[in-house]
Fold this sequence. Notes:
- One of its GO terms (biological process) is microtubule-based movement.
- The structure is a single chain.
- The chain is an alpha+beta fold.
- 46% of the residues lie in helices and 14% in strands.
- The protein contains 14 helices and 18 strands.
- The protein has helices at residues 2-11, 31-47, 49-58, 92-140, 147-174, 184-297, 315-319, 373-386, 405-409, 418-430, 487-500, 564-589, 601-606, 629-642, and strands at residues 326-331, 340-343, 345-346, 349-354, 357-362, 365-367, 392-399, 436-446, 449-452, 461-466, 474-477, 482-483, 503-504, 512-513, 516-525, 533-542, 615-622, 654-655.
- Strand 8 and strand 9 (449-452) form a beta hairpin.
- Helix 5 packs antiparallel against helix 6 (184-297).
- The chain is rod-shaped.
- The termini are far apart.
- 36% of the residues are buried.
- The chain binds adenosine-5'-diphosphate and magnesium ion.
- Adenosine-5'-diphosphate is lined by residues 332-333, 399, 401-407, 509, 512-513, 545, 621.
Amino acid sequence: MRLAEFLSVHLGAEESCGNPPELGQPGEVPPLLTVTSQLLALLAWIRSPRGRQVLLQGTHPASNVQPPTPDGALSQEDSPYQPTPIQGEVPRGEAQGQQLPQLEEEQRAWQRLEQLILGQLEELRQQLEQQEEELGRLRLGVGATDSEKRVQHLTLENEALKQSLSLTRDLLLNWGPGPPTRAPQEEAEALLELQGRLQEAQDTTEALRVQLGVQEVQLQGLRGALQQLQQETEQNCRRELQQVHGQLAGLRTRMASLRQGCGDLRGLVSTFTQSCQGSLSEAQGQVSWALGALSAGGAGTQLPEGQQGPPTGCPGRLLELKGNIRVLCRLRPGTPCSLVSVEAGPGGTVTTCYRGRQRRFHLDWVFSPDASQEEVFGELEPAVLSCLQGYSVCIFTYGQTGTGKTYSMEGPPEDPGIAPRALQSLFREMGTGGQHRVTLSMVEIYNEAVRDLLAPGPPERLAVRQGPAGQGGIQVAGLTHWDVPNLETLHQMLSLGRSNRATAATSMNPRSSRSHALVTLTLCAASPPSTPGTAGTLHLVDLAGSERAWKAGATGTQRGDPNSAQRLREAQTINRSLLALGGVMAALRARRSHVPFRDSQLTRLLQPALGPGTTAVLLLQISTRPEDLGETVCSLKFAERVGQVELGPARRRKAPRSETPSSLSTDTPLTGTPCTPTRSPVSPPSPSPDSGSCSALGPSGDLPP
Ligand code: ADP
Ligand code: MG
């Protein structure tokens, strides 16, 4: 302390040997480093010759002070508080003689100590600088991942520095130049000042530690924010990705629907083109017919009855057929049920209340339960008669077993149904002019097997094939076609076919038809010499029951019924084929480019009857029994969907001059081997119907005038 004070007194005057830094200078340099730097500067000055000279001249070390050992330890009697001899008590000459070797020795000890202190101080300074750098880095928040440990480390370092400082201070005090030159009060003040600085350094360290803590907290906060930001970004990205996926799926769906729409449009265009061509050729036919009539009879001459042009039938009614499948509904007579109510007549409705839900179905025509066979046929007659003009008409009955499909289609002899009345009406319309040639074929589809009901022998199983490429339609190889000269023969043949039809009993209908029956009548009109004739077709289809297999009691597991397994199979195949019919209707309704006609034999055979430009009428038979309500609703739903199917405007078919009626046009469904069994089927002809070479029809021009 004395040395330090002494030096601080002299430092102000020394410029050349390097001044120690100003004590207590406020600034950014930490106090500890400042103190150390000051000590270093002091030592550097002490080491300089000038410093030594000043020291030697101004004062001298206390005689009782021993130089410290190289390791810095001091002996017990080196205490600075021990009394020292007062300067000037020894005579001067003697004292000088004794002091010289002692001074030299002290000089050497001084140098050793100086080296030691210098080394230690240099080391301390480097450590302090490192700490300062570290603190600076921490202030900047760089590398502060382990800040807590660093703070502890810094505290420890600080403690070590403090110890080193106090050691240095002790050394300086013990090894100071001679007895205290200041008053004890000054010493105490200097000590206090140093302690103050030390405290200041500690405070600074503490403040830095607090600051570090704050920064650590801020860093944690920033890390949290960063993590949150990352999560949010990730979530946003995911959400956007999902949105993009959703948009992509939407686009795909839209593209598919556009493709579908494109296919539908193509279908429409082709239907329209065909319709235009049909109308054009029809107009041409009419013009040439009129010209022929004019040239034959002269202007203003009344034509004979047989040459009155195309049979009129009900042309006005025919125009009502706008290309949609017409749906008529007939209720089976029975006890009225409050759950089914009807508004009969054209555009009628059927309202059902099933499972607490009321539904109203709109149909083209609704017949009340007491409607007669005549009434029903009256609605169908225009369509039937249009066959004479070359149109293709298909009438089919649909509904649950026992609802009266067969009754409506065939009817009992005393009250005939659609088929006999249609034939009668056609023959009546044709009259006796012989302008038309009528051929008949009849098949049934039983368990997906197509059987010829008018074969001369027992019913044969027939193969249904796709027609020649480009012509469409189908071919039924070996199918018997009968030429029907008159109504009586026709009735006889129908009876024969009916008796050949497979029937079996179920719990719902003792004489239920377990098969689909298709009657096809082809009417080829004789043509004037210059124009092609027409070939109309009438398909009469009596479908098997549409009820579910389980409800028909044909579950196949019933005890005591040896045929129950067969009943179950029948019910399953019927359901499958009706499902296929539903699929075809759905595709036609949606105007899909692909219509699944090949899904069942029924739809295969109906393909020509449901082609573009044909006329189709569905007669839906429903029951009013409460226990049948579920089936009734199902049937009505099916019928409503069928009512939306558009087959395009009806158009007439031309009969090629050189071909037989059975292959006159591609829409003739039951094309196959033409045959000529003109004899009555009651006395079956010799079995040669599939010879394919015995056509009784020559070119259409050969038809009687
Ligand atoms: P499906 O062919 O739908 O199975 P059917 O035509 O065989 O049903 O009819 C079942 C029973 O109901 C038959 O005995 C039939 O005579 C009778 N029937 C159906 N509809 C009527 C009706 N409108 N008038 C009189 N009897 C009917
Ligand atoms: Mg039936």
